[in-house]
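thread: overnight batch results

M.L. [08:02]
morning all. the overnight job finished for the chain we discussed friday. pasting input first so we're all looking at the same thing
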Amino acid sequence: MFALVGAIGAVAAPIAGRMADAGHTEKMSKFAMVLAVISFVPVFFNLPHGVIFLALTGVLLDFAVQMNMVLGQRAVYTLDPHSRGRLNALYMTSIFIGGALGSILASVVYAHGGWIYVAAIGSALPLLALILFMRISALSSSNSQKQVHV
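M.L. [08:03]
and the structure it wrote out:
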């Protein structure tokens, strides 16, 4: 069952690529982060058929992560064409390190508070990323408007 969950998440990559090509990178990045935040919501309720809701959490979270990764990688490819290989290696290394640190954090949190604490941290981190992303987007937008008026 969980293999199918992973396969469903792979659908996000082509969708994200098409949306980014259409110029919706920022909007879709925000969507992916919101989806990551809400992906853990089913865990907070003691619902019957817990495995089904765990699978739903897995699908939503995988979809969000895949989408954000494709959008981020596309942004890397728009940078200096001569440095694409090095920039992509740096990007993928940072993704790997972030995943490893997240796994360590989840293990420690699970040992101290169980799955509900892991879900809380799992929702809080993408929420923090979303807040920072929106703040940086707002600052960038206001700076570009100032440059237009100068």
